[in-house]
Amino acid sequence: MDYDEKIIRITPSYLFANPRSLQAETRYHTKTVAALADEHERVQSPKAKRTWLEEKKRFWRDRMKHVTACNDALNLEGRKQEVRRQKIRERVVERIKEKSTELGWGREAERYFKENPMINFVHLNPTLTNDEWTKIEPDLIPLMEKERELFRQQEIGEHIRQRINKWLKPAHTALILSQPPNELNPSILDLSLSDEWRTHLCTEAFNEDLTESLVEAASAQIPEIAKAWRKDRIEQLLEVVRNSKTYSGQEVTEDILHLSSTIFRCTKCEDYYGHGGVHTFPHTLVHACNHPHDLPIIQFAPRHLPAPPPPNYGPYEADRRFDPDPVIRLYRKEEMHVVAALKYAGMWSGLNHIVFDDAAHEHMLTMLDTLGWSRETSAAEMEERQPYVECLCECYHNPAERASRKIFRWKKAPHPPGLKGHPGKIRVLASEERWLHYEKSVPLEEEGVEDHQTRGRNVDSDSGSEIIEDLSDLDSDFE
Ligand SMILES: [Zn+2]
Ligand SMILES: [Zn+2]
Q1: In sequence order, which residues have a C-beta less than 8 Å from that of residue 215 and are 6 or more positions away?
Q2: Ligand 2 center to residue 367 CA distance, Å?
Q3: How many angstroms is it from 280 CA to the middle of ligand 1?
Q4: C-alpha of residue 200 to centroid of ligand 2, in Å
Q5: Where are the domains of the chain?
Q6: pLDDT tens digit string along 200-237?
Q7: Which residues surround ligand 1, an ion (CB under 5 A)?
Q8: What ligand is nearest to the CA atom of residue 359?
Q9: For 472, which of 163, 312, 326, 399 is 20 to 30 Å away at the CA?
Q10: Could you report the predicted ipTM of this complex, rounded to two decimals?
């Protein structure tokens, strides 16, 4: 009988395990199926039909066995060829290495062929004839030159790393130890990229150590470098304050940063975790989102040239404009080794996600008013006095529901979870003294419900049971 020949094509054995592929085959070979059905129809007796069916089955079993055997043979042949290719490669590479060593490129050739295992030489004679060598040599030498440059750069990197370990690390540690505990200090990467230090770290000849006098002079500069660095970072944060609704159009100085009502939040954290945090100065500046561990964009521009424009993100990277990679400008190529050695320190990418929290600012002023404290109270003072507050502003409670009783550490209070904006009733609520506060010294748990009620102001005569229930939350809220 006639079968259309497509059915005899070699089908990989794994396809037989997939019923969908078998279905597709059945549908595809309708001509064959029709021919078989026709043939089956023509067989008369049931016994003959059974024999016919058995025969067909045996035919297809044999055919499939053949297919599998063909596939196995092909695979085996492929593996044999691979072994042969590998053997040729090994022998040719050995010969090339010998020839390269004679020309002084031994180390380079050794590494090049180790790093590039996929380069094949099947077209070459395993013994590598002189003719063949003459042909490949002009292509090979530039590759070896590149390798040599890589080796050179590696050695320079090693020397620079030694200088960092010997001179810069102790100098950076000395700076940290000389400052008060909460001082804002440049990271070791920031310090290494200061003009003084990057010049010294990359002074030639690289294989010579720096002189003590050179290092002393550079170390003496560090307090000044740190001061300028602090000024720059603070200025960036002040710019965030100037861009706020609260301080728009006003003169903003560093004093404002220290106020407890100067609160920032991080929009990136807000997107990721649903809460942008309550950040005060100076720790806003060391917030992790300002120091991503992404690879930086390196801009090479010698010192005498103006700074290059910020990187241009293409149309497919529109979101990168809101979350840009850190950018580092290098004056010379060798400075790359400084960045490589210290990249663990995290790179400054700017205050791209930090915003002044106007709603938290309002809450904070209300809190201070209710506490009877000055609106100029600093964040440091709040930390010291640690008032605990009960929040009754509408931002904390759905006005339609009865307020639950919760007490917060002051820093948790200015920005309740889910706060989008302040409803604007704050002035009224404040004047009605809806903020209740308890001094830290009040031992709420020991004194129990009654005392809790009498010490607070403006407490409704709620049912005691509800208060007891909510007091059990205190532990978690107090942190
Ligand atoms: Zn963040
Ligand atoms: Zn509010």
Answers
A1: 167, 171, 200
A2: 10
A3: 13
A4: 54
A5: 5-115, 240-310+320-356, 377-478
A6: 999 888 888 888 999 999 999 999 999 999 999 999 99
A7: 266, 268-269, 289
A8: 2
A9: 399
A10: 0.90
